[in-house]
Design brief:
The chain is about 50% helix and about 20% strand. Strands 2-1-3 form a three-stranded antiparallel sheet, with helices on one face.
C-alpha cells in the first residue's frame, strides 16, 4: 500500500475541488468526504491509501495543486 498524508493547507485552498478529487480517487460519499475535509481544516492530518505508487502520486499532485500540504508518503 502507498499512503499519502495531507498534513495541512495553504490559504486559498479550493475545498469544493478538493472534495471532488477525494471522491474521484476514493469512491467515498459526499458526507464522508466533507467530514474528512473539515477534520483536515481543523488540524487533523488525513491519510489516504492507494494500491499503487502511480495513483498515490497522481492524488498527491492533484491535492497539492489545490493548496494542500502533503507530508511523507509511505510505501
Amino acid at each position: 500500500m502507498h499512503t499519502v498524508r495531507i498534513t495541512g493547507w495553504k490559504p486559498g485552498l479550493h475545498t469544493i475541488e478538493l472534495m471532488r478529487i477525494i471522491r474521484s480517487f476514493t469512491g467515498w460519499g459526499l458526507a464522508e468526504t466533507k467530514e474528512s475535509v473539515e477534520r483536515m481544516l481543523n488540524g487533523t492530518p488525513l491519510d489516504f491509501e492507494f494500491e499503487d505508487a502511480m495513483t498515490a502520486s497522481r492524488f498527491e499532485t492533484a491535492v497539492t495543486s489545490l493548496g494542500c500540504i502533503c507530508g511523507d508518503r509511505t510505501n
